[in-house]
Structure formats: C-alpha cells, structure tokens
Fold this sequence. Notes:
The protein is about 70% helix and about 5% strand. The protein is mostly helical. Among the domains are: about 5-130, no CATH class; about 185-230, no CATH class. Strands 1-2 form a two-stranded antiparallel sheet. Helix 15 packs antiparallel against helix 16 (about 300-310) and helix 18 runs antiparallel to helix 19 (about 350-360). The protein is elongated. The protein starts with 15 loop residues before the first strand and ends in a 5-residue tail after the last helix. InterPro entries: TPR-like_helical_dom_sf, TPR_rpt.
Amino acid sequence: MDFKIEKYLLKKAEELAFITIKHGGEFKLKSYEVPKGGLDVPIKNEVLVKGIKEKTAQDKLNSMSIADAMIYIIGIDSKFKNNAEYEKFLNALSKDIDLDLKSYMGYMSRKYFEIGEHTDSLIYIKAFITMYPDDLDAMYNYAIVCQEIAKQYQKDMDDKAMNAFLLEAMAKLEKVIDVDENFALGYYHLGYHYYNQGQYLKTKLTWEEALRLGLDADLVAEVQENLGKMDFKVQYEEGYTLVFQGKFKEGLEKLLPLEEEHMDWWNLLFMIALGYKGMGEIEQAKMYLEKILIIKPNQVDTIVELGLCEAYKNNLDKAIEYFEQAAKIKEDPEILCNLGMAYLNNGDIDDATYYIERAYELNPQDEITIACLRELGINK
C-alpha cells in the first residue's frame, strides 16, 4: 500500500532502540524461529529506560514489548527492511498467546487518539492497514486520524504538511467507497474534501449519496444545511465547466443569474467575461473584466485577458499596454509570449525577440514559448 505521508513520521523511529536476538539463543517463541543470522528487533526507549530505572531491563525485553515496537516501526515505515520478518514474528505470537493483532492495534490507536496523541494513533492504525490492507473500517479510521493531524498542521501554519495529510485522507476515503459503495460515512467525509478543493458539483453528488445511504440525524441536518448554502457554488461550477467545454451560451445561462447577488465575486465575473469572449462579444467581455479591476486592480489573469481582447480587436498598442502591465506584476513565460507576439504583429521585431527570448530563459520547455520562437524564425 502506498503512503504519501511517511516522511512526516520517520522522526518517530528515534523513539526506538534495536537489539539483536540470536538464532538458538535464550529468546524463545513456540511458533517462531529466529533467522540463522539473528534478528535486530526494536524496543521502545521508554520501556528500556523504565526497566533500567527499576533494574528489570531484562524482564522488560519480553515478547509483547518487542511485538509492540515491531508494530510501531511497521506503522512508521512501511518499507522498513525487517518488516516481513516482523510480521512472521507477530503472527506467530498471536497464535502462541492468543493475541488478536487487529484488536490490539485498533485499541492502541483509539487510546492515543482519545488523549490527543494523534501521531502515535496514526502509527498504530497505519500498521494495521499495512498488515491488513483489505480492512475498510481500519482504512476509514486511518483517514480520520490523518484529518486530525492536518488540523494541527493548519494551526502550525504548515500548509505543505496539512495538504499532504488531507490528500492522504481523501485518497484512502476514495478507496473505501470504491470497495464498499454503501459506506455512508466515507461519502460524508469525502464531501468536505471535495468542498475544500472547490469541487462543488462533486461535493453535492457525494453528500447526496451519503444522505441516500443513511446518516445519523445530526449529520443529516448538517449535510442538508451545507447543501443549501452551496447551491450557488454548484451552479457556478456547472457554468464554468460549460464555458471551458466551449458551450459559451449554456455556460452564461448558468452564470449570469448569479451576478445580482454576487457582484463582487471576481471569479464569477471572470468566467462571464470568458463566456462572452468565447461568443465573440468582446465589448461585453471587456466590461466584465474592467469590473474585476475595480475590485482587484492587480488581478493578473484579468489584465492578460483584457490584452487578448484588445489584440482580438487589433488594438495592438492597447494590447501591449495591458501585457506590459501584467508582466510587471508576474514575469511569466505565457505573458511574455503574448507581449512578444503583440510587438511582432505591431511590426516591432526587436522587442518581440527580446520578450520571447526572455520567456525561453524562464522556461526552455514551455511549448508556447517554443512555438513563438518559431514564429520569429528562431530554432532552439
């Protein structure tokens, strides 16, 4: 199983020490034989320290304390070199002492979760799904713990880590409902992930499926309230999807009714402008783009679109003015290429060459830039 968040857990391995148990040595387990070369086994530092303080260190090195640490390292690093041997040990121990490994790992994860130790909680439930990847309840619980850890990273303002754990949770929840289409709570939580990503139509469909499958009354009320509040966002997504599909008239039919209540929503105004531009109604497009600049004077995509509108009307001097304004805000290869092509079409070869070659310097792999260079007769 693939885990995208392991790098955030590896430091926890520092809480383990490793000792070597020898083949044929004093350590015995009825259903398990230590490999002939011996085996390095983990033990939690806290267990060793406690044993040393109490002068019972040797007693602390029992099969259960070793098993717990093996589970811990499997949960930290799913690709640790000895994991396969550790799983043999754990399966043998479960037979010898009638230990339910699933119950144990689930209990340890819940215990740490309840006291707010979410990373340790995650390690145990991650070990669970590493060893038993088909257990959907465990995978669901793993996703829930990932969500809690993401909240902590959000508080710490670590967006990269937060997003990593949110994406991990989403991926595992999607796997849960792929396997079990009736897992209502999976749909419930997935809806929030899609909502936070701005996928409102997908959110709506996901939450409607959760309601159809059945949730507790308090969750039903929560989801219904959320759905009511996001109707306009769903309509917006339907509209911009149609615009991007080239169905400009149908897209505008979805988007324009939203304008009255959302006059300051620049994204909406931008999509309306693109719809009009797609239909060739350039003056209408410009009107909406200019509205955006009143709200967000440095919105660079809007400035670029105004430049493209002017270029479409063959107002090249005005187009150059907009593209130069955009390039001052964001030195982007696509913007520089637009600026260079405007100069080229305006008969200014030197400035055209300067800006397109600058775009190439920023990103030599950019296909638009390479195409612009060919227009100039330059091969790179």
